[in-house]
Model the fold of this input.
Amino acid sequence: MKPILIFLRLAAFVVLVFLSFRPVLNRALPKGIKKMALLLDLSNSMQVKDPQARIESAKSILEPVLKKYPDARLFGFGKTMAEIPGDKLWEADPIQKQSNMAGAIHQLAEKKEFRMCILASDGRQIGPGDPVVEAAALGVPFVTVGLGNPKLFKDLAIRSVQSPPFAFKNIPTSVSARVSAAGFQGKKISVRLKEGSAVLGLQNIGINSPEMEATVNFSWVPGSLGTKSLSIEMDVFSGEVSVKNNSKRFRLDVGRDRFRVLYICGLPGWEYGFLRHQFKSDPAVELVTFVILRNAGNILNVSDSELSLIPFPTQDELIRQMGTFDLVVFEEFMFPQYGLMPAIFQAVRKKVVEGGGLLLISGPETFRNNSPFGIPGIVEMIPIDFKSGDVRYFPGKFKWRPRIISHPTLRLDSNPEMNERIWSGLPPLEGLTLVPGVMEGAQKISVATVEGKEYPVLAAWNLGQGRVAA
Done:
């Protein structure tokens, strides 16, 4: 033990001596990294004189920076962003109708070429996104140069909206908005929660200072089911820099008290674990699931009663309970093996036609020749065409891509551009059941190209008032 203690003390002494010299780590920038990026606001409001034109002030600030750092790059932005040659600085005209700072900063981040950014602007964000978030994501020093006389700046804006991911019918739901006001001291403004032209809530705010921010809260009781298109809107006053930020739209899914899901899985895999987790983690979902851990081909000297975690329901019980479920999920479920007859699908069809949903997660077993899903009364429900050609399993990797990126099942982000970037950034998937196509009238929601041919991955269509996907 004594030699070990001596060694530890000696090591600690060496570390202290090393730190006393205050070592500094210098990282060389990768070759090709520029010194800085300069962002110049070219929106209409930069023409305002107070007393000097704001665009002239901005150019006077950026010109010496360009002379001192000749490798700096200049970009002008409004609704869109474009690079401006340094010697054309004084020719740039502020004629764009928006000031999308967040979009411009995001484009800079994608270039990954800059170690610093200077932004010269007089306005607020007009467009999707948050410039503060985008500037933080840029990961380099970010300097903003504010232009214009703040006493002349007038604007009302809805900065953000906070709402739950879902709501329940006939249950009060809270929605709040962060609003800001500049240049309207002494005024009273109205903030409204609306669905279309119907006003669901109204709050009045007194503006007590030249610049202020406040949170407005609404309580609303949804009276019907479905996805609601809502908005928060403010009064519009003359002289505002922009009226486009006086409202924000958002969506809210309204369901009943609990959304019941029946999930029967005949061949559990990674997708079962993922979907089960998604359903179980949603407090609005009541999940009833049955997992079959072996099929009829697995011969074991053990009775079914000793293998079942939950007794599998009889056909009569399933038919009786089917009307209570909002969504039925069958994953590689070969129902005849478990004493169930096609009559079970009559109950499923009745529920879907009345407004329910059916999801088939299927593979080579479900869509094989002589499949029980291919008999009349069942095959007409399925949007996948697996009867007109060969069905085979492709074990290799394939690139999945959305065909209808705006479809609700593919909405990972409310911003369409961000949603598309998320999906396009997914890695290749592995293993796909190749079917001839989809039925006439069905939507190809997503597809994959294998061996030069396009195959459907997810398809859906309407059945009565409900939907079926496979």
About this structure: The mean pLDDT is 82. The CA atoms of residues 35 and 69 lie 7 Å apart. The chain has nine helices and 25 strands. The radius of gyration is 31 Å.
